[in-house]
Amino acid sequence: MLAVTFALATPAPALASTTPVACTVGGVAIPDGEPAPEHVPTVISCFDSVKEAEQFIEDGAPGDYEQLQPEGVTLRAAAATVTVGKIWTGTSRSGSVLIHWGSGSGCYGVTFGFPSLGSGWNNNVRSAEGFNNCWSSQYDGTSYSGAVLTCAPYCSSLGALAAKTSSIVYRPVGTFG
Length: 177
Hints:
This protein is mainly β and 177 residues long. The chain has helices spanning 50-58, 64-68, and strands at residues 4-8, 22-27, 29-31, 42-47, 81-88, 97-103, 110-114, 127-130, 134-141, 145-151, 154-155, 167-172. The strands form two sheets. Strands 1-4-2-6-5-8-11 form a seven-stranded mixed sheet. It is globular.
């Protein structure tokens, strides 16, 4: 099993010249109506297979979960980690996949935001899907700016936004970006 972990306060660096099959990135749940924390590190781990990446999330994203918590926030004991969405470099769930995860049970009263993507993923997304009561909104600019497309919950192609996604928000089903 290949497991590469990045923990950064800024966007993740470019992935290796050959993009791994599957990577994971964690997000912090923001309750509806609450402001986002000022500093949340980007924590990415990459694997040789989707199965290994999904097992990593199911196991609680050990090592990544602890790094993800904003400074001054106390970790809750045994918080569950769950997939909130996936993006692919190809259409119709093909190519490499970046799996977004968070703590809790999904987008039930919370939102997960990813204001930037690692350079190996930035402007390289061609299909997307939300999971666990989440719809994903793909933005062509960082920090949720520019044109937006909401996948409710799946987009086999991003149309005019194909290969232009720079930030993503996962919101409760029925909520558009």
